[in-house]
C-alpha cells in the first residue's frame, strides 16, 4: 500500500486541487483588477448578490450601456452584410479607446447611418415610382394607339358635349399637370392605367370583372424591367394594366380595388405628343435619381467600410467590458463603501499568477491601497477542473456528457482515451475502411490551424472537434482489421501463406471441404483460408463472441478497481471492505471463471461445451462434468466459486448499513469523534457514507434500502452488463457481412458482365454504399454503442458524475457575437 501511495500523481486522474479565496479590492482599481483576471482566466467568481435581481445590482447602468453599444454594433454588422461588404479580418491596430469615447463614436455612426438609410429609401421609392410611371406610359400608350379609331370617334362626341378648359397653367410641366386630378372626361368611356404584381393579376382581373359585372375592358402587358421592393430588397415582376370603363361609380370601385390589391395607378394622357414629352421628363428625372442613388450608395459603402475596419475590435472591447461589469455585479461593497469584496474558486497552482495580476492592476491604476487576497475555508464542494489539451479535450467531453466528475473523483477519461477507440474498432474492424477514416482524420489534423480559425457548420464543427478521436478510431480499426484479415471484406495473405491446403486436386474449386492443416498457424490474425469456407461463420462467431466477453470482463474489473482507488483516496475503508471486495468476488466467481474456461479451451483445443458447463454450474453443481471437464479439480472449483458468489451477495447488502448505524450512534453519544478537516471535507457525501458532515438524524431504513438497491443493481448488472458486451460481436459480424454483400453482390456481380457501362454502374453503387452506409452509418452506429459501453457498463462501477464544472471568468471563452 505504501508503494501505491508513493506513486507519482497522474495529471488527468484527479481534478486539480481547488481553493476558495476572498478578494478585497479598492474601488479605483476594481475594474482593472477584474479585467486582468479575465485575461488570466483562472478564477471563478461566486455570486454574492444572488438574492438581488439584475436591476438591483451596483453596475446595472454600465451593463445597460454595454448592451446598448452591442445593439449598435450588431446593427452595423447587419448593414455591412446587407451591403455585401466583408469585415476586415485584421482589425485596425488603433490605441486603446475609452468606453465613453467609443459610446459617442457609435452614437454618431448610428445616427449617420440611419439618416443615410432614410434618404436612400426615399430616393429609391421615388425612383421606383418613376420607373413604374415610365413603363405604364410605354405599355398603356401602345394600348391607346391600338384602339385609336374607337377613341377618335368617342373624342368627337365628347368635344361636342363637354367644354374644354383652356386656362391650364402653362407654367407647370406636363408631368406635374398629368399628376394633378383633372376634370376631363366626366362621362363616356374612360380608362385607368397602372401597374400591379404579376402574381396578383388573375385575382385582380376576376375581381374587376365581378365588381363591374363585365362592363369593362382589361388589357395587360408584362413590364420590361423588374422593380426593387424596398421592404424585402428583392426584385418583383410586375404587369402594366389599362382598364376601360364607363361611369363615375365604376371609377370609384376600380380605384378601391386597385388600392386593396396594392396596384399603383398613374395618369396617362391620350395625346401622343403629351405622352412623349412626359416620357422624356420621366427619363431625365430617372437619370438624375440614378446618379444621386449611386453617389449615396458610394458614400454609405465608404462609411460602412470605415466602420468595418474597426468593428471586430469594437465588438471585442464592448463584450469584454460587459463581461467585466457582469463580474463586478457579483461582488459586494464593504461597510465603508470604498472596497469591493469578492469570493471565488481557483486552482492552487494559480494562486501566484492571480496575486501577480492583482499587484499589476494596483500599480497600473495608481491605487494607494493594494488588493487583499487570502484563502478561505469552506465545506462546500469545489468545482471540478481538468487541464486538457487539443488531444485529450474531446475524450473529456465524452465523459462530461454523462456527468461532470465529483471533486477529486477518479476520471474515466484517462482510460477512455484508449478503450473508447479500441472498442469502436472491435465493432468496425476493417483495415480498408480504417484507411478511409484515417485519411479524413489526417486531413482535419493537418488543417487544424486553418479550420480552427474559421466558422464551421454544426456538423463540421463537431467532426473537427473530435478529429483526434477519429484519428485513434481509424488507427485501431486498421489494427483490428488486420486481425480480422478484412480489406473491404477481402482477405489477403499479408503475413505469409495460409496454414491450410487442399487434401487433393478435387477441392481446389469448392473451398468448402477437403482442407487440411499442413503447417504452423497463421502468424497474425485470422487465416485467409477461413473466408468462403463452410465453417467460416461458426468459427468467426465463436471467436468474436468469446472475445467480447473477455474484453467486457476486463473493462468491468477495471471499473471496480477504480472504485477501490476512489475509496482509498477518500479514506473510506467501509466501501473497500463491504463493496469493493464482495463485488470483485461475485463478478470473477462467475464471469471470471467463464473467461478462464474460454482461454483454457483456446489453449488446449478442447471440445467442451461451455454453455453446458455454466448452466449446470447452477442447476447441478455436484454433477460430474464428463467430457466437458477442461482441467483437474474443475468440479470442486465450481462449487467453491458458486459458494463465494452466494456469500458475496449478503456481504454487499447487510454489513454496511449496520456499521454506519453503529458509527452514528457512537459519534453522537460522545464515545468517538469524527476527524475535523479531513481530506473528504469538500465532498458531498451520499446517505450511506461513513463520514457525514451534517448532524442530521440517521434514517436506518433509508440507508438500508439504498444499500439494497445498490446490491441488487450490481448483481443483476453483472449479468446484463456482460451480455451487453456481446454487442461487440454483433456489430462486428454485421459490419463484416454488409461489406461482403456489397463486394460480392454488387461489385463482383457487375464485374462479371463484359459491359463497361454495367461495370461503371456497379462500381458507383459499391462506392456509394461503402461511403454512406459503411463509412457513415456504421461509424455512427459503432460510435454510439461504444459510448453506451463506457457510460453504462464501465462508469457505473465507480463514477458518480455529480460534480459541477469549473467555469472561470475568462475573455477567451466569451462568445463571438454578444447577443
From TrEMBL:
Protein family (similarity comment): Belongs to the V-ATPase 116 kDa subunit family.
This protein's name: V-type proton ATPase subunit a
UniProt source species: Penstemon smallii
Topology in the lipid bilayer: Multi-pass membrane protein
Major location category of this protein: membrane
UniProt keyword list: Coiled coil, Hydrogen ion transport, Ion transport, Membrane, Transmembrane, Transmembrane helix, Transport
Subcellular location: Membrane
Function, in words: Essential component of the vacuolar proton pump (V-ATPase), a multimeric enzyme that catalyzes the translocation of protons across the membranes. Required for assembly and activity of the V-ATPase.
Coiled coil: 99-126
Amino acid at each position: 500500500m505504501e508503494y501505491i501511495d508513493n506513486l507519482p500523481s497522474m495529471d488527468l486522474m484527479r481534478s486539480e486541487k481547488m481553493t476558495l479565496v476572498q478578494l478585497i479590492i479598492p474601488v479605483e482599481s476594481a475594474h482593472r483588477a477584474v479585467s486582468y483576471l479575465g485575461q488570466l482566466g483562472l478564477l471563478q467568481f461566486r455570486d454574492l448578490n444572488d438574492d438581488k435581481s439584475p436591476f438591483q445590482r451596483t453596475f446595472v447602468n454600465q451593463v445597460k450601456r454595454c448592451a446598448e453599444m452591442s445593439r449598435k454594433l450588431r446593427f452595423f454588422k447587419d448593414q455591412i452584410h446587407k451591403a455585401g461588404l466583408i469585415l476586415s479580418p485584421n482589425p485596425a491596430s488603433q490605441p486603446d479607446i475609452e468606453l465613453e469615447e467609443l459610446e459617442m463614436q457609435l452614437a454618431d455612426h448610428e445616427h449617420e447611418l440611419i439618416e443615410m438609410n432614410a434618404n436612400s429609401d426615399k430616393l429609391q421609392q421615388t425612383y421606383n415610382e418613376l420607373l413604374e410611371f415610365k413603363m405604364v406610359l410605354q405599355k398603356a400608350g401602345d394600348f391607346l394607339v391600338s384602339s385609336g379609331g374607337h377613341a377618335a370617334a368617342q373624342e368627337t362626341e365628347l368635344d361636342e358635349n363637354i367644354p374644354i378648359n383652356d386656362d391650364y397653367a402653362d407654367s407647370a410641366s406636363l408631368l406635374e399637370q398629368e399628376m394633378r386630378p383633372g376634370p376631363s372626361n366626366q362621362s363616356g368611356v374612360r380608362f385607368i392605367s397602372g401597374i400591379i404584381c404579376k402574381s396578383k393579376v388573375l385575382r385582380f382581373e376576376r375581381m374587376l370583372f365581378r365588381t363591374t359585372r363585365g362592363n369593362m375592358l382589361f388589357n395587360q402587358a408584362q413590364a420590361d424591367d423588374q422593380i426593387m421592393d424596398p421592404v424585402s430588397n428583392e426584385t418583383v415582376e410586375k404587369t402594366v394594366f389599362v382598364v376601360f370603363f364607363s361611369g363615375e361609380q365604376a371609377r370609384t370601385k376600380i380605384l378601391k380595388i386597385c388600392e386593396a390589391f396594392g396596384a399603383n395607378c398613374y395618369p396617362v394622357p391620350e395625346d401622343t405628343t403629351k405622352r412623349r414629352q412626359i416620357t422624356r421628363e420621366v427619363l431625365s428625372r430617372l437619370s438624375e435619381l440614378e446618379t444621386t442613388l449611386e453617389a449615396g450608395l458610394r458614400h454609405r459603402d465608404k462609411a460602412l467600410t470605415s466602420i468595418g475596419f474597426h468593428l471586430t475590435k469594437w465588438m471585442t472591447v464592448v463584450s469584454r467590458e460587459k463581461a467585466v461589469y457582469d463580474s463586478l455585479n457579483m461582488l459586494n461593497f464593504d461597510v465603508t463603501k470604498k472596497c469591493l469584496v469578492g469570493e471565488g474558486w481557483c486552482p492552487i497552482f494559480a494562486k501566484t499568477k492571480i496575486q501577480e495580476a492583482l499587484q499589476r492592476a494596483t500599480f497600473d491604476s495608481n491605487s494607494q491601497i493594494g488588493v487583499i487576497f487570502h484563502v478561505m475555508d469552506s465545506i462546500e464542494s469545489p468545482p471540478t477542473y481538468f487541464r486538457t489539451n487539443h488531444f485529450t479535450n474531446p475524450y473529456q467531453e465524452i465523459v462530461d456528457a454523462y456527468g461532470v466528475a465529483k471533486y477529486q473523483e477518479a476520471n474515466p477519461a484517462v482510460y477512455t482515451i484508449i478503450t473508447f477507440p479500441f472498442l469502436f474498432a472491435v465493432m468496425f474492424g476493417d483495415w480498408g475502411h480504417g484507411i478511409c477514416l484515417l485519411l479524413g482524420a489526417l486531413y482535419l489534423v493537418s488543417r487544424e490551424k486553418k479550420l480552427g480559425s474559421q466558422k464551421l457548420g454544426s456538423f463540421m464543427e463537431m467532426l473537427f472537434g473530435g478529429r483526434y478521436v477519429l484519428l485513434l478510431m481509424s488507427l485501431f480499426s486498421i489494427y483490428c482489421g488486420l486481425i480480422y484479415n478484412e480489406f473491404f471484406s477481402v482477405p489477403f495473405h499479408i503475413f505469409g501463406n495460409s496454414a491450410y491446403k487442399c487434401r487433393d486436386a478435387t477441392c481446389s474449386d469448392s473451398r468448402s471441404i477437403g482442407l487440411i492443416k499442413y503447417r504452423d498457424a497463421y502468424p497474425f490474425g485470422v487465416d485467409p483460408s477461413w473466408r468462403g469456407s463452410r465453417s467460416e461463420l461458426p468459427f468467426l462467431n465463436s471467436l468474436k463472441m468469446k472475445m467480447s466477453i473477455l474484453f467486457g470482463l476486463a473493462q468491468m474489473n477495471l471499473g471496480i478497481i477504480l472504485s477501490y482507488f476512489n475509496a482509498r483516496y477518500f479514506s473510506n475503508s467501509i466501501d473497500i471492505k463491504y463493496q469493493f471486495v464482495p463485488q470483485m468476488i461475485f463478478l470473477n466467481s462467475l464471469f471470471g471463471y467463464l473467461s478462464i474456461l474460454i482461454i483454457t479451451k483456446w489453449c488446449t483445443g478442447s471440445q467442451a461445451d461451455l454453455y453446458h458447463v455454466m448452466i449446470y454450474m447452477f442447476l447441478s453443481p455436484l454433477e460430474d462434468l464428463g467430457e466437458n471437464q477442461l482441467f483437474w479439480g474443475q468440479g470442486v472449483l465450481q462449487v467453491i466459486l458458486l459458494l463465494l458468489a452466494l456469500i458475496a451477495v449478503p456481504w454487499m447488502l447487510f454489513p454496511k448499513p449496520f456499521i454506519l448505524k453503529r458509527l452514528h450512534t457512537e459519534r453522537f453519544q460522545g464515545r468517538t469523534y469524527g476527524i475535523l478537516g479531513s481530506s473528504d471535507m469538500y465532498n458531498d457525501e451520499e446517505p450511506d457514507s461513513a463520514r457525514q458532515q451534517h448532524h442530521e438524524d440517521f434514517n436506518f431504513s433509508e440507508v438500508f434500502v439504498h444499500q439494497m438497491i445498490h446490491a441488487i443493481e450490481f448483481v443483476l448488472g453483472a449479468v446484463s452488463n456482460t451480455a451487453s458486451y456481446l454487442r461487440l460481436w454483433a456489430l462486428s459480424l454485421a459490419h463484416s457481412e454488409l461489406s461482403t454483400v456489397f463486394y460480392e453482390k454488387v461489385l463482383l456481380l457487375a464485374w462479371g458482365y463484359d459491359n463497361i457501362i454495367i461495370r461503371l454502374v456497379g462500381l458507383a453503387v459499391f462506392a456509394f454504399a461503402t461511403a454512406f452506409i459503411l463509412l457513415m452509418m456504421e461509424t455512427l452506429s459503432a460510435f454510439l454503442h461504444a459510448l453506451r459501453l463506457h457510460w453504462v457498463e464501465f462508469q457505473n462501477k465507480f463514477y458518480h458524475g455529480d460534480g459541477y464544472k469549473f467555469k472561470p471568468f475568462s475573455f477567451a471563452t466569451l462568445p463571438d457575437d454578444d447577443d
